Amino acid sequence: MTVLPRKDKEARIKDIANMILPELVPDQLQLLGIADSDIDITGFAEARNHSTPGMALLQLTKHRADAIIAKGSKLYAPKSQDRESQLDYVNENSNILMRQWARLTHLLTHTSPNNQAILRLIDLIIESSVLAGYYAGSNDMLALTDRYVDSGYNASVAKPQKGGQAKAKVTEPVKILVQDMANFVYQEPNLASTTKATLAEAIVQVLQDFSATGNNKSIPALKKFPNRAPELDTVNKWIKSVVKPSNTSSKPKASLAVVTAKLKAAYTTRQIAASLA
């Protein structure tokens, strides 16, 4: 962790407090030694674990945008009557999306009461869209400002994290595959009541069996793991944000054997290999 002078840390905290979703840059927060309590952020984990994470994330984004505007900072206020600020655009588009969601929900629920699976999938699309848009905007801002980043900060903060980022990049296909497996299970009516613990064990078992087949242990994305497959703790962390359907308490919980068999049928050795290529 980089230790910043007190004044520099205070300035950085003020900067991050004006971010809408600082939770999406955890590496930077850690490297700067900034805790969530330093910038008083709450609600992100709850939004990602909500029954409708897309809409919850959208509402959180709008709420935080309003809070930043309310601070009265000139940097985030409208530049003139003819030109809105970036936060105004955030609010406008958030309102549009929420109205469209309400309209879509009304149409689908009145067309058929069995459209919950479709609504859940659309909400996941909204969640992914919010995150993709946030990272796209972050990338474009970096493209404009990165050239002017202080060389001392670049040397002490940016460069030390390259090793960790490289490892994360190599194992990213595994993480994506794990989360896809989890979403598959929770979109299956007969598996919707599966506990996160059972789901994680099933995924680990499927990937361990895959790794033990042929030369799969040599796949670069798996070589970063000591056992050539992600550990249970890692899988639990990766599927934490995957939303488990609500109102499934009355349904029998699927066993580990059943979930594992379903996953192996849906994710064949060839399909897993292609996903990790």
From TrEMBL:
It comes from the Bacteria. This is Uncharacterized protein. It comes from Shewanella sedimentimangrovi. The lineage of its organism: Bacteria, Pseudomonadati, Pseudomonadota, Gammaproteobacteria, Alteromonadales.
